[in-house]
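Forwarding the complex inputs:
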Amino acid sequence: MSETMGDSEIKQLEKIGKTAVADLKKEENPKITIPLRGLSNVYFEKKEKVIRLGDKTSQRTLLNVAHTKKFMQTTMIAALCKRLLKAQKHASLREAYYQLKHSVGDGHENTFEGQEESDPLIEDMETLLHVLREKLHLSADRRGYLYGNIQLEDRGDIIDCSKLGSGGFGIPSTIEEIKFKKVTANYVLVIETAAMFERLIEEKFAQKNKAILVATQGQAARGCRRLINRLANEAKLPIYVFTDGDPYGYYIYSVIKQGSINLAYLSDQFGTPACRFLGMQMSDIKKYKLEKVTEKLKDLDRKRLEEELKYQWFQTPEWQKELNMMLTMGVRIEQQALAHKSLEFVAEEYLPEKIEKEDVLP
Amino acid sequence: MSETMGDSEIKQLEKIGKTAVADLKKEENPKITIPLRGLSNVYFEKKEKVIRLGDKTSQRTLLNVAHTKKFMQTTMIAALCKRLLKAQKHASLREAYYQLKHSVGDGHENTFEGQEESDPLIEDMETLLHVLREKLHLSADRRGYLYGNIQLEDRGDIIDCSKLGSGGFGIPSTIEEIKFKKVTANYVLVIETAAMFERLIEEKFAQKNKAILVATQGQAARGCRRLINRLANEAKLPIYVFTDGDPYGYYIYSVIKQGSINLAYLSDQFGTPACRFLGMQMSDIKKYKLEKVTEKLKDLDRKRLEEELKYQWFQTPEWQKELNMMLTMGVRIEQQALAHKSLEFVAEEYLPEKIEKEDVLP
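Prediction (whole assembly, two chains):
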């Protein structure tokens, strides 16, 4: 437990309360100014290639009947975060809701009616302080696994992630306190499916290629995205993303790369603009003779593709070509379809070849 | 890699082919007799308290046009399993499908049109040989985490599961080859949500109580259920199951305890009849003054409850009382609602008290 960890967050949280009290003493109406989230205040910054929040804000004042309850709830959440930081404890969003529900005086009215009231205010807090909720000790749901050439230090334990059998390390909801103790990897391979992750562990891919494997199990959870971000920025590792060759796989990639509209206010900490898309690529189908193991696009796939063609972050010649090729060919291809060649093929030929030739999309 | 591992399975698989060849040589119609699965051939064995398969069977013959393709597919799957066992490789169900699709000669017809054709035949193989598909080296999807007082040996690695930071061990899809190297736990606590699992890691619950924590993340995956089964049968540990107090939590418990209708043919290896239900119990609400953090039952909850009241495995006085109490009170309660008392409450009071007093349901 470091002495400084959380100190700056505590000061920021206290400032919310102190400012309100000072306003009241001056007989002024206490207010909190919160950046607006959502599409109307989001833009894609082309230079840094991340989704960012604009400068629109909204104000929440105490002496406005429409705001009073929310004002109180906001300060309650700030107070809870301060308590968590002081006690060096973490709480899930659900626990936070249960901690805060019905805890003011003897009143019969609930302070919070449901988690749908507390969650957005926690996002407000992140936006307001420009701090990850994980750094305020509030955790999201966890999903995903890590395996390979890295030693982690976590809560006093030293974990050699290349010696975790066939299981790997479960990526926790909050990875802020994990330290990269020793990195012997040349790159990180982010994998969509847990089955492919298991395939590559069985093939000893991490050991043979000095790699770190990260399984997202579908859309990457916050802890997983934050870990990828830190592996790129702190450990300075190249990041390759390996998903199914379908519109959903592209979407998973785009969220890892430039963040999401929902979390635009924290793209610096969640997005990894330097990551690259390894596959599955449409050109793989011909190159590796996989014509017989493609699947026909469904209507939903086509609809998503049409949308992705318009996204700002897919406005590169490479991605326009890729997306149009999928539309024209009318098929998608899964990463596990490579098993049609042989089980080893993905580990012994496909991936090493792609990486050596830098056969990737931006 | 042991010399004997998989040998008996290989012999069983070879027998399928040898029998068919012998039949052909005798100019007889080769046939495979497979136990029927599904509700019509399933019963609840009260003594051992598991769901079992009856003795109805169906026959698949080569020289019946309606059976020929399926007969071929069945032998193809047997051949694939043999290859996997010989090579000491594992394949996911999806990989198995891709390995087998379109692989006979130069014909234009697919051998398998989709995974919906290969999956049921793999279940046939499990039923026929009375062997887990994991022992035939075919893996299901993984989900779940392990943490606590146990050392595992897996693929040559020794893993101390009490020294895995805040993450824990990712439970792989196949746990057949994992050895329990050293067990210093008094019991296993199976937990429905990953958030509660993280709470208990943070509270050092495993260390303080000499426990093993298993997070199922909702319905327990096959690997997770098999691990619980082995912890009960091989490591001889008591198993406590800790879910939300709602019909879905009860369902998760019942599947861990007596297996499922789908997998009735393998209840011995997937069910854990000795496990007990720790909570959340309806009586907890009054006992721990949790009235303000319950949630109203929804229509779907009531419907499920009515169904569960009729299930044979809930025909005990304790469960009938519990289910009826929920119907009468009209509420459900989540495990994370205990955070309303304090974050530590679950680890320092609720769980130790329940376990000490054996305040559990059968």
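The first helix of chain B runs from residue 7 to 25.
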